[in-house]
Design brief:
three-stranded mixed beta sheet, single chain, 6 helices
Length: 169
């Protein structure tokens, strides 16, 4: 198995896990948060839905400045329903899959940089950054399942059974 095949298989598994979590999003909870220092639920669910776009970006661009000196031009679209989050996930996953299918092993070994105000914060081979992105995605999905529990929504089985879902996935 080469890097591309490995990352595609990983993407497919994590998309289905994210789908299971996003299916449980209750309407009307976009601005809900469990603590004043916590991010709002809608922002978190949006990240779970759209993080695969980062994979495409890590293949098609050489770097990203998350805090450009002239201000960020990126704006997160507000989504209020499970259906909207699932649609965003499908688009993000399609874009990531397409980028992975069109890249080469050699390209995945080249360097990718994360910048903040023009300064390098992280630099690693693309395949390492993509794997870190997948781990970051799982982290935020885990946060989201805690939010779901605190809101009284069902928590899906992701890597094994939950109190609400006894399936093994």
């Amino acid at each position: 198995m080469n890097l591309t095949e490995f990352l595609l298989a990983e993407l497919d598994r994590e998309v289905e896990r994210s789908r299971s979590a996003l299916e449980q999003v209750p309407e009307g909870k976009y601005d809900w948060k469990p603590h004043e220092k916590s991010m709002i639920f809608g922002y978190l669910a949006n990240m779970v839905a759209t993080i695969p776009t980062w994979i495409a970006m890590e293949i098609t661009q050489d770097e990203l400045d998350v805090a450009p000196a002239d201000g960020s031009k990126w704006e997160q679209k507000r989504m209020d329903t499970s259906e909207a989050f699932l649609e965003a996930l499908d688009k993000a996953a399609t874009d990531a899959r397409s980028a992975l299918e069109q890249t080469t092993e050699e390209h995945l070994l080249t360097s990718w940089r994360l910048l903040a105000r023009g300064q390098v914060v992280m630099e690693s081979p693309r395949h390492v950054m993509i794997q870190d992105t997948i781990n970051h995605w799982a982290h935020h999905r885990g946060q989201m399942t805690v939010y779901l529990r605190l809101m009284g929504a069902k928590v899906p089985a992701l890597y094994g059974p939950s109190a609400d879902d006894n399936q093994f996935r």
